[in-house]
Amino acid sequence: MLPTLPDSLVIQVLQAPNDTSKVLGVTSRADSNDPKGELVVMLSTSYPGGMLAPVRERLAIVIYHEFHHIAYGWTMTNSHLSNSVLRVAVNEGWQ
After folding, report:
1. Domain regions of the chain by residue span
2. N or C: which end of the chain has fewer CB within 10 A?
3. How do 37-43 and 9-15 pair as beta strands?
4. Where are the alpha helices (DSSP H) in 14-82?
5. Contact in structure between 46 and 19 (CB atoms under 8 Å)
6. Taking a C-beta distance cutoff of 8 angstroms, is the pair 68, 39 a contact?
């Protein structure tokens, strides 16, 4: 997957504006994949252990998940793929 990422990637890290306990203190989104990859990571300040806990526990997983979206081309803007229920279930791993 990594060879299909754009040559340029921008990762913006922000304080989460709401409760992120259901996603273990960190949430994210892949905003764009063309011409550069852009993703936003939001960390909770109220998660047990503070902002560093989700960094240690989940940040690598979350970023790799968003890299998948960027490489695959399913991003918030300029996506060439549909948002069908099946595609969302597969891409987001609904249980």
Report:
1. 2-92
2. C
3. parallel
4. 52-72
5. yes
6. no
